[in-house]
Design brief:
single chain, 219 residues, Rossmann fold, 7-stranded mixed sheet, globular
Length: 219
């Protein structure tokens, strides 16, 4: 399930201004938040809705914060990200893996490990998003949700060219296209969960559920 379908995107789609290894850019920890408190609250609310208590979760492209609801227990949250110091400081993570997904999109987990996954304000940095999303479908259980959130800011030098070429609606359509190209995703929803008043950071969401009918047990 790791074959890349990025050939369905035009040449240059995944080029970046800074093509140096991501390990250099993420070498120093950044103990900051990348969206404001209202947008973070909107992310947390989505997690409340999509990730039931006691789910085993994967926080992909994780840092020192996962934005999970403080009152909901999740005994096993696994983070994958680039900076070891950030991941070690994240109080919600039971485990973490430092891995450059642009170098190695294969996830180091067995099939059907997780009940849900999140990618928060980070999908714009993936140069092989289709391969990563295909891997996510493999490591998630049938029908498990993936919640992808993003706003209107980024590290410009590290975001792919397609992200720069598109507006907010275009970003929603692009992430939907990633999921469709990856296969194994259904019930794809595109949402605008921007907090009111509009002075805060906007918050856009793409949700998909894993489509592995061959693995769903008959009732
Ligand atoms: C803007 S931060 C967002 C962090 C966190 N998800 C949050 O909501 O605050 C981008 C994150 O993407 C991760 N990231 C960027 N490039 C990556 C790559 N090539 N492989 C794995 N993770 C990556 C970084 O480690 C960083 O934590």
């Amino acid at each position: 399930m790791t074959q890349d379908n990025s050939s369905s995107f035009p040449p240059g789609t995944f080029r970046r201004q800074d093509e140096t290894p991501d390990s250099e850019f993420y070498h120093h920890p950044r103990f900051v938040t990348h969206i404001d408190d209202a947008a973070i609250a909107a992310v947390t609310q989505l997690y409340r809705e999509y990730f039931p208590a006691n789910s085993t979760l994967l926080d992909l492209m994780s840092s020192w914060v996962s934005h999970l609801p403080a009152e909901v227990p999740y005994p096993r949250v696994v983070g994958v990200g680039m900076n070891e110091k950030e991941l070690r400081a994240n109080p919600r993570l039971a485990e973490y893996v430092v891995q450059d997904l642009n170098q190695q999109p294969t996830l180091p987990f067995p099939d059907n490990t997780f009940d849900g996954a999140a990618i928060c304000v980070s999908i714009d940095y993936l140069t092989q998003p289709v391969a990563v999303l295909r891997e996510l479908a493999r490591v998630l259980r049938p029908n498990a949700p993936l919640v992808v959130t993003f706003s209107n800011r980024c590290f410009p030098s590290k975001a792919v060219a397609a992200w720069h070429a598109l507006d907010d609606r275009g970003h929603l359509a692009l992430v939907q296209q990633y999921l469709q190209a990856a296969g194994h995703w259904h019930a794809i929803k595109l949402l605008d969960r921007s907090p009111a008043p509009r002075r805060s950071d906007p918050l856009f969401v793409v949700i998909g559920q894993v489509d592995k009918p061959e693995l769903v047990q008959p009732e």
